[in-house]
User: Fold this.
Amino acid sequence: MRGVLRRASGRPEGSVARGGAVVMDRCVPPVAGVGAVPVPDFRQNEGSLTSTLRTLLFFTALMITLPVGLYFSSKAYIFEGTLGMSDRDSYFYAAIVAVIAVHVVLALFVYVAWNEGSRQWREGKQD
Assistant:
């Protein structure tokens, strides 16, 4: 296959400048198979994508349910029921428990995502 030849002006051979625009005199369609870029196969990544989505959905559900559940259960059963605190104090300490739960879930997510990414990277390096 013949490469594109350029004139001294930098325009491809067979092109003519008309009114500031470059117009091609003739257009040769590319030959299939010669210099063609292979189409990437994304089916290999389906298992990886499914695993990542499953992990994300699990931690999303955990992020919603765990802090809210711990807030109300610790307020009612631990701080008001067991320790006998007032409403005002139990709100404060239950909020602290919920914030700690959010940080624990975030730390677990980062840990799992980091290990999952490094595992996929190692598997990709072995291929």
Strands lie at 15-18, 21-24. The mean pLDDT is 78.
